[in-house]
UniProtKB/TrEMBL annotation:
Gene3D superfamilies: 3.10.450.10. One of its GO terms (cellular component) is extracellular region. Residues 39-99 form the Cystatin domain. This is Cystatin domain-containing protein. It comes from Takifugu bimaculatus. Residues 1-19 form the signal peptide.
Amino acid sequence: MRLLLSVALLSSVLQLCSAAPVRENLNCAEVNNATAGHLAIHHINENHDHGYKFKIDEVTEVDLKMVDNGCDIELQLLLKETACHTISPRDFEECPERSLGERAVVANCSVLITVKDNDAKVTKYDCETRQESPAAAAVLCLIILLEGELWSWSLLDQVLLKTFLNEDSFSV
């Protein structure tokens, strides 16, 4: 029994270690958006304790400010939710994105990375989350219905009415 427990514990530790990011050097001389974004998303996912892990959809803004012995890098990120729960040992990069039909969440994040003596750390982040647009989900439903020839004007009325009234769900 102890052997089984030891093997289970060892495999859990190995999975956690394998999920750790391989960090490229982030320096003040030349900021690599992908490297800065990678450091930021790992930090966000490590500190996100509910729901699903995120992936970067886009790095929208990067601002570099030189400070004593280093620099501050401010990032604006657009994130999309993945299908992997936060407790999953899988790395977020291996996880598929959640679809509109799964009521996926998107996030707009401001991240501050401080680089001092060639050591980069996320020192602050703030994310605003929201569900992807119900209007986009309604359009997707209409496209599926048109392709499947399940079309009716009453269905269109119902979808449009519910969408514009900002109701989260509708029945087909």
